[in-house]
Amino acid sequence: MSAAIDLITGELDTPFLAVDLDVMERNLASMAGAARARGFALRPHAKTHKCLEIARRQVEHGAAGLTVATVGEAEIFASGGFTDLFIAYPIWAAGGRGNRLRALAERASLRVGIDSEEGAQALAKAVAGADVEALVEIDSGHHRSGVRPGQAAEVATAAARAGLRVVGIFTFPGHGYGPGRRGQAAVDEAGALTEARASMRKAGLEVEVSSGGSTPTAALSDAGALTEIRPGVYVFNDSQQAELGSCDWADIALTAISTVVSSSGRRVVLDAGSKILGADQPAWATGGGRLPDHPDARVVALSEHHATVVLPEDGVSLRPGDVVRVAPNHVCAAVNLADELIVLANGAQQDRWQVAARGANA
Amino acid sequence: MSAAIDLITGELDTPFLAVDLDVMERNLASMAGAARARGFALRPHAKTHKCLEIARRQVEHGAAGLTVATVGEAEIFASGGFTDLFIAYPIWAAGGRGNRLRALAERASLRVGIDSEEGAQALAKAVAGADVEALVEIDSGHHRSGVRPGQAAEVATAAARAGLRVVGIFTFPGHGYGPGRRGQAAVDEAGALTEARASMRKAGLEVEVSSGGSTPTAALSDAGALTEIRPGVYVFNDSQQAELGSCDWADIALTAISTVVSSSGRRVVLDAGSKILGADQPAWATGGGRLPDHPDARVVALSEHHATVVLPEDGVSLRPGDVVRVAPNHVCAAVNLADELIVLANGAQQDRWQVAARGANA
Fold first, then answer.
1. At the N or C end, where does chain A have fewer CB atoms within 10 A?
2. Which residues sit opposite B323 in a β-bridge?
3. A174: Cα separation from own chain's centroid
4. What phi and psi, each to the nearest 5 degrees, are found at residue B353?
5. What is the rounded CA–CA span in Å between residue B3 and residue B102?
6. How far apart are alpha carbons A156 and A175 in whole angstroms?
7. How does pLDDT run across B337-357, given as a tens digit for each residue?
8. CA of A91 to nearest chain B CA: how many angstroms apart?
9. Closest by CA position to A86, among listed A112, A59, A62, A105
10. For A144, nearest residue in chain B (alpha carbons)
11. d(Cα B11, Cα B167) in Å, to the nearest integer?
């Protein structure tokens, strides 16, 4: 990488987000291969990259379709030619959003999440007549949105009564984002989806789609309980994934290229701050991000345009003007702060990809 | 506000950032009045709002000029007609950035921060011939960038030798961002600037500008030690400022207008997550933001498109479809995630302001 860095930082001022194309391609191939080998449909979550170019590569690698988080993201990927979209979120389909969903359903095969009777009724009213598939969100232990597994049939029945075509269930085992928690989260995911499926069948409702999976748990997902996985972060990986052990430092495909602007002994300040890396920092993280080329360095403080880095006593020294790579803690947050990603391959800039769905929160 | 919310959410899908114009105007007037009364030049930090319309109002209220954090922000405000700009950051002025600084100096009166001999030399080389004023950054206790007060003369002398016109010193008392810390931070700020000024004078260097101030410490800044204050957040305020006691909940001018999408008893999920609020959450914060209209509610978890809110047992209930206001913890981070701000006054939408400098990190 550093050769590439020297090449491009002559032309580009830091900080900026750079994608290592070879590493990204390896990540895409490896997740696609694992899903294929274990019989899962792979529906990558596009909220991580928000780029049409990357979504195309995911489909080339065999993705069954895309997952998105918002109607705005769905609109942008539909305009980019992606016609199989799952909005994995309990959308409140009132007002303008309802009309937008109806218009979307006319140009794409659309799946939408529901987790309440009111939500299902609002959705049914909004898309009446259009062919939209509904999936009931199940809480498998993350305790965010979603209903308890035993309530799946209740919501599904209300949705069917309101006129929706309910095709299955989905969950996000987000409680796997913690040291040593991936295994239990995958077990909880399988258990919750199995119980929800049983509750649906008891009510005479077929479950075609049982969707789960996150980057930390994807490799552990239960092929008996899931038909589909929806990992997002795997395309780039980040410091969180490396610190959780779900990837190696060499698997990190996106970094902020950054310059040392200030130094005092073993403490240096970089020009990459929370306005390019994002401020996500779980309690178990070692800091505000990591330097993949300096694994012993620690980002001890992060402000908007400053990363304060402490270097090990016996390690490399950095001086003002030196250029380094910083891996964000949570890559989805970093990408959503950038207008474009600089694509590097073979030690040189190959391309620039627009972050087409940046800021598409509604 | 809630009347305004009902009016506009017919037209706009949540989540979006809204500015209460009356509250913002009150905040602008009150900080400008306080600075005037205490003899400080007010140079507001535009990184908070990144909007030309708001910068114009700050100048109308008597601001001496603007503070920015990056060359990119300076370029955007210069293009917007603002010709007195201070980049309060130890800029590394090599390569393209050096040329951009030189071009900027030709269309604006430009001040730039320095905190090292190397940085000063790179800056002098980049802007050679152009009229740029340099200010030495002093570390007053935040321990980010900046030199120890006693080293001010050393860096200033090196800068002068390199050909820069050194006009003074600046500091950011960021360690005042903590409960009960504002008073001590203001004392540290005054002490550090006084010591730095003495070190400069001893070396025969005049100090025309002694610049400090942050929103939490502005009201406590020492008129004997400072000539100028640079608060930023005060224009909008945020949950951090209210929890620190540097503003009231009624002084918060920017909120994310958000919809309840999921509920289970006293726990509800809003569609405003970290991709619109930002993920900043200091250890002392009560959660991922606050609901100004429901002061007893707590944002117990924040993910990209979900805010999990726990409502008090004896308080109001919220149901899916209800619309609420969420004040971010750190408003600078939230604004930098939005393309535009919706401006509300007298219970209706008055305007939309473009976040012109969004993402201008370089």
1. N
2. B259
3. 11
4. -110, 130
5. 50
6. 25
7. 999 999 999 889 999 999 999
8. 7
9. A112
10. B308
11. 51
